[in-house]
Amino acid sequence: MLAKGARIQRFKSTSWMSSRTFLNLGRLTQNSELKGNGQQYVVRKTFHQPKSVVYSVISNVDKYHEFIPYCEASFINSRDSKGEPTEAGLTVGFKSFDETFLCTLECQKDKQVIAKSITHSLFHSLLTEWNVTEASSSKTNVELILSYEFKSDLYNQISALFATKVTSIMIKAFEKRAYTKHKQSCK
């Protein structure tokens, strides 16, 4: 089931993927770490909250465990001089499986968050890119690009069956959190 209004595109990626962004008419995104079995998913959705609220929810990685399903722990290890996170991590668990991921973060305040995994026990690569642009004073266009490649071909095949659902669950969780945060700030 897809979040209402969300559009998910699936790309079996080699080294280049063309995608449309909100910032311009198009661009060529390179993810040279995908070795051939990598997958890329793009979700675009309009949230009914201001850009600053949406960006805050995305960049506050240390709060993810409070609202993302299967996220058991989340933390920020370091921040830059402006207070933006530069290294963060998550522990994700499901039944008897759990894995901790450490990522470098590149944050452009109220515009973009890019998280690149530096923990490679399960993945060849894992990259998450969030782009936020103002649609109006009370609405924000959100683009989530999720690129990954497991080390195991079996995991790559299995993940292809569930990735659209997982991506939909993620975008719903962020949208709900942005709604809650905006509602709290209006009180």
From TrEMBL:
Coiled coil: none
Single Gene Ontology MF annotation: ubiquinone binding
GO cellular component: mitochondrion
CDD domains, A to Z: COQ10p_like
Residues of the Coenzyme Q-binding protein COQ10 START domain: 50-175
Biological process per Gene Ontology, one example term: cellular respiration
Pfam family, one: Polyketide_cyc
Function according to Swiss-Prot or TrEMBL: Required for the function of coenzyme Q in the respiratory chain. May serve as a chaperone or may be involved in the transport of Q6 from its site of synthesis to the catalytic sites of the respiratory complexes.
Family: Belongs to the COQ10 family.
Alphabetical list of PANTHER family matching this protein: COENZYME Q-BINDING PROTEIN COQ10, MITOCHONDRIAL (PTHR12901:SF10), SPERM PROTEIN HOMOLOG (PTHR12901)
Subunit structure: Interacts with coenzyme Q.
Name this polypeptide is given: BA75_00284T0
